[in-house]
Amino acid sequence: MKIIQLTDPHLVPNGSLLRGIDPQARLRACLAEIEAHHLDAQALVVSGDVTDLADRASYELFRDVVDEFSLPPLYVTVGNHDRRSVFGAVFPQHLAPDGYAHKRFDLGDHVGLLLDTWTMGTHAGAFDRVRLDWLSARLAEGHQPVLMFMHHAPVRVGLKRLDHIALQNEDEFWEAIAPFKSRIRHMFFGHMHRNVAGSWRGVPFTVAAGLTHQVMLDFQTEIVRHVEVEPYFSVILVNSRDVVVHPHAIRDAKIIDIAPDATRPSRAL
Ligand SMILES: [Fe+2]
Ligand SMILES: [Fe+2]
User: For residues 118 and 111, is the Cβ–Cβ distance under 8 A?
Assistant: First the structure.
């Protein structure tokens, strides 16, 4: 099974730039590649910060750009740069009946859980009691292995500003999922604008860098220092035994094909 995670598009209104880069062009480049090479994916998960300033024009732009492409089934949640009410006005299909941008979706012999960590008035994330109860109830349904997607991560990564705006109620989140830990195969986050991987309380996780600027690896600074790099999305491969995550950068790189030479012994790359 293949899943695509695309995160932090940070769209701005048509014709404008985000600190010198063009999020719309980056989104189009990623979607074109997903359409060309990953239509076999079971899901395309967009893990928040759909827009940079939560304006309606940027959500409508995201909707219109996405509609131009043939894509795997799309699941979208919100990040701290979003506003759930504006998001929901443009994407009512991505809000649950309780008003949150969370969803349980079928992945064959797996279950996908897309969570909503958005909290009014802060760049940090949190789950209120409604969302924690929703999560516990969804985890209690069935016995399939679970792949979990959300914007904010509960893990601290050593980058001061990012750790300051991480998921705030880590312990409550853990209490909700701990009874089901053996079924949670992997967690996928956004928000950090860096590729990061590891495990949190024994659960493997991956953070996808996303479409726009990346946060510099600087363990000293209290501010967020950005660096302009190419847009990333993740190609996730899952079978009954293993989970593999390929962070994939879109760039105009020269492709060097090395054809097998039957007259020479094969060499390692
Ligand atoms: Fe972001
Ligand atoms: Fe974020």
Answer: no
- Enclosing H/E stretch for 150: strand 146-150
Is residue 56 within 8 Å of residue 89, measured between CB atoms? yes
> How far does residue 84's CA lie from ligand 1's centre (Å)?
15
- Ligand 2 centroid–CA 148 distance in Å is 17
pTM score: 0.94
| Segment 146-162, tens digit of pLDDT | 999 999 999 999 999 99
Segments making up each domain of the chain, as ranges = 2-249
Q: What is the CATH number of domain 2-249?
A: 3.60.21.10
- Residue 257: pLDDT band (50, 70, 90) is confident
In a 10 Å sphere around its CB, with 0-12 CB exposed, 13-18 middle and 19+ buried, how is residue 36 labelled? Answer: exposed
